[in-house]
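Weekly sync notes, structure subgroup
Attendees: PM, AL, DS (notes)

Item 1: joint prediction request from the bench team. They want all four components modeled as one assembly rather than separately. Inputs as received:
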Amino acid sequence: MEKDCLKLENQLCFPLYAASRNVIKKYKPFLDELDLTYTQYITMMVLWDLKEINVKELGNKLYLDSGTLTPLLKTLESKGYVSRVRSSSDERNLLICLTAEGGKLKDKAASIPTKVSKCINLNPDEALSLYKILYKILEGGE
Amino acid sequence: MEKDCLKLENQLCFPLYAASRNVIKKYKPFLDELDLTYTQYITMMVLWDLKEINVKELGNKLYLDSGTLTPLLKTLESKGYVSRVRSSSDERNLLICLTAEGGKLKDKAASIPTKVSKCINLNPDEALSLYKILYKILEGGE
DNA sequence: TTAAAATAAATTGTGTACAATTGAATTGTA
DNA sequence: TACAATTCAATTGTACACAATTTATTTTAA
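Output from the run, pasted for the record:
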C-alpha cells in the first residue's frame, strides 16, 4: 500500500506545480503585448506599488534571490522600465526605481487580472479558499 | 479601485507560483539522496507505475514537452535509471523504459511523500480541498 | 502510389530558478 | 581603531520550461 504514495495522481505537489505553470501560461498572450515575462510582470507589480525598492527586499517579496533577479532587472532596465542605482547611504544596496516609461505600463496592465481570472474556471469561494491555503503554505515554512 | 487588482497581495497566481516553488524546495534534501531533481522525480514516478511509456504520453501526464523532456531523459539514461529505445512499430516514438537500477530507487523513494507532507503545514481537509481545486484548474483548460 | 499532411522527438534560443561562490561595503567588537 | 563577521549583489554553473523550428517517419488522400 505504501507504493500508492508514489503515484503521480496521489501527490499534492505535482498538481500544484502543474497548475502554477498552467496559469502562468494563460498570462502569456496578455503579457506579450507589454513585452514582459511573468516574472518580470510580478516584479513590475511591486514597483507599480512602491516605486522604489532594493534587490534584497524585492527578493523577499517575490521569494526570489539575486541569482534570478540580477539578470531580470538588467533586462527590465534595458527595456527602459526600471533604473538601477546604488544606494548612496549603503553602497551594498542596489535601488530599483520605476521609470516614467515603466509607470505607463501600469495602465496597459490594468485589465490583465480580470482577463486572466476569466480563463480560470474557479468560483469565488474556491478562489478564496485556494488563496488562504496557498498563503498558509507560504507562511508555514521557508 | 482598478489599481488594487495589480497589487501582488491580491493575486491568486502569485501565491500559486510561490507555493509551488516553496514545496518543491522541501523535496530537495530527500531527492538529493537519490540524485534526482524534482522534475526527474515525477518522471520516475510515472515509470515506477507504468514501467514503460513514450515521450509524448509522458509529456501528456507531466504537462511537459519534448524540449524539456529530451535532455531530462538523456540525463536519467546517463544515471542508469531509464533506457531510451525507438519503437519498432513506429520509429517516431521513443520508448522510455524503467531499468532494474531505476526500479530499485522506488524503495528508497517510498518514504519521501510522508516526509514532505510533514514539512507542509496543512490539515487533511485543507490538503483535499487544495487537491480538488488544483485539478479543477488543470482540467478547466489547456 | 506518391506527394502532401500529420505526427513525434530533437534542436535552438531565451529566460528563469537556485545552489554555491565571490567581491565589495558595512558593522560589531576586542 | 583594526579586523573579523556580516550583508548585499553579482557571478558561475546546472537544470529546467517553453516557443519555434527542424528532421525523420508515418498516414492520408488525390
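Discussion: Chain B has a mean pLDDT of 96.
Action: AL to compare against the crosslinking data before next sync.
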